[in-house]
Amino acid sequence: MAGGAFAPASGGKEYPGKFTGRVFLTCIFAATGGLIFGYDLGISGGVTSMDVFLKDFFPDVYRKESSVKPSDDQYCKFDSQILTLFTSSLYLAALVSSIGASIATRTYGRRPTMMASGVLFAAGAIVNGLAKNVVMLIVGRLLLGFGIGCANQSVPIYLSEVAPYKFRGAFNMMFQLFITIGILIANLLNYVLARWVGGDTAWRLSLGGAIVPGLIILLGSCFLSDSPNSEIERGNYEKAKDLLLKLRQVDNVDEEFNDLVEASEKAKLVKHAWLNIFKRKYRPQLVFAFCIPMFQQLTGMNVIVFYAPVLFKTIGFGSNASLFSSLITGIVNMLATFVSIFTVDKLGRRKLFLMGGTQMFICQIVITIAIAMKFGLSGNPGVISGTYAGAVVAFICIYVAGFAWSWGPLGWLVPSEIFPLEVRSAAQSINVSVNMIFTFVIAQIFTAMLCHLKFGLFICFAVCVVIMSIFIHRLLPETKGIPIEEMTTVWRSHPHWRKYFDEDDAKVETRPKDIVSA
Fold it and tell me: What sections of the sequence does the record tag as coiled-coil (predicted)?
């Protein structure tokens, strides 16, 4: 991979550090934590579109779907709160576990939390693959959710701390890349199993197959060291400096190491991170820790990820055709993520947010018009031509691409890089919790929204995209090229946010000599 693709941006201090095979492989192993989230995002929608799965666990939904005639209202045939609970229950568990994981990442380190995510996810996969009733399905989903909460809490922080600051954006986005790879694998597996295997075996292999990404993050974490920041946080100064030398592959890391130690010493003065994070000086970052994950879900992207097969069946695709169309969107999602990896440290975060938002807005309007013209308010499309179906899929793919190189990866990158060490774990927990809350809400109410809002569903998401683009344009400072422990300077210089800082926040505390020279 050419180094030029990760061209560094300037700003703040410039710590020495190279793009090395060691740091690349370290970030790759860690980023596989995204596989478990992506696999689950992709697998649930495909499974809930399989008739045999609906017969076994949701017979009322199956009877309702199979009894709908082409002349009936297609918008409401999947409207079932029990069915959506199968998908959404996981995100309540992830919400709860992210709070516990924030304590674990600070007390025990990032790496053990990543390992725990793999164990929990693999356990959930086993329960789901062997499920005999809805209770087992929900229990399995809860275990999966606990694993996802741990991974989403620990992996983005780990990547931001391990990567050289010049390449932090690109390396952090590997988490989102592996999420998209997980989605693609799930879509491919659903399609292959539904078409060529069928029966109970198809959905059992789809759900039970989640054990593979769980074992990957578990085993991958075994080969990793914890981040230098985490080692310093727990008092292991010599080990941290040795790790930093190995990761940066330079002769002298004193300046970066000393700044990490200073940040850790300041962090130790904060005894209750969950109380301190609500102080005035953290309020600017806190706004984004809440709003970015909220807006990420309000783009409507997870409607496509969760329910693409259901959505495509609603607009007239057959079962296999709907799964194949989902596979296409999964491929687009993964490939488009590479755009952000290669441009985030060149163009910056703000430009990608705004350009991706514009692309999504245009596509949402076009999709709304296309569905309105064919289905109207009655939900009766008549005969659907191949040209119409292809056009809808094409614009959904363009919409997916817009998300994949903007709000998808940036939704994890920005919140993980903007907080100081003393509240970073608590802040990431808030980020994950908000993400999971809105993921749960969207997953739970989507089929009801489709039933009641009909083609206006995408208009709601389009309005949200406009609002969040204005929010980014007016309030988000550019963070590219800024070392993670120097990020406060960005907020202090912003015309809107600088009023939240006073002179005491600018004072640099004296470093303990014995630690600095370690």
Answer: none
Nearest to 112 by CA among 161, 90, 34, 120: 120
Give the amino acid at 506.
A
Cβ count near 198 (within 10 Å): 13
CA distance 247 to 228: 9
CA distance 299 to 297: 5
Query: Residue 199: how many CB atoms within 10 A of its CB?
Result: 11
pLDDT in tens, 117-175: 999 999 999 999 999 998 999 999 999 999 999 999 999 999 988 988 888 888 888 99
Q: pTM for the whole thing?
A: 0.81
**Residue type at 202 in one-letter notation:** A
**Is the distance from CB of 299 to CB of 360 less than 8 angstroms?**
yes
**Statement: residue 9 has pLDDT above 50:** no
DSSP assignment, residue 382? -
- Give the pair of three-digit tokens for residue 295: 């807006």
The DSSP call for residue 385 is P
Output the pLDDT for position 71. Answer: 54
Burial class (CB in 10 A: 0-12, 13-18, 19+), 34: buried
Burial 489-499 (b: 16+ CB within 10 A, else e): ebbbebeebee
CATH topology of domain 21-516: Growth Hormone; Chain: A; (1.20.1250)
CA distance 271 to 288: 23
Domain ranges of the chain: 21-516
Q: Cβ distance 486 to 12 under 8 Å?
A: yes
Q: Is 133 left (phi over 0), alpha (psi -120 to 50) or beta?
A: beta
- Dist. CA 204–CA 194, nearest whole Å: 11
* 351-385: pLDDT as tens digits: 999 999 999 999 999 988 988 887 777 666 666 67
Angle at alpha carbon of residue 11, lines to 163 and 487, rounded to 5°: 65
| Residues whose CB falls within 8 Å of the CB of residue 251, separated by 6 or more in sequence, listed in order | none
> Alpha carbon of 14 to those of 100, 214, 241: distances in Å?
35, 37, 18
Nearby residues of 102 by Cβ (< 8 Å), 6 or more positions away: 153, 425, 426, 428, 429
pLDDT digit string, tens, across residues 300-313: 887 777 656 666 66
* Dihedral sign (CA 114, 304, 325, 56): positive
User: Looking at the predicted structure, is the pLDDT value of residue 97 above 70?
Assistant: yes
d(CA 188, CA 146): 25
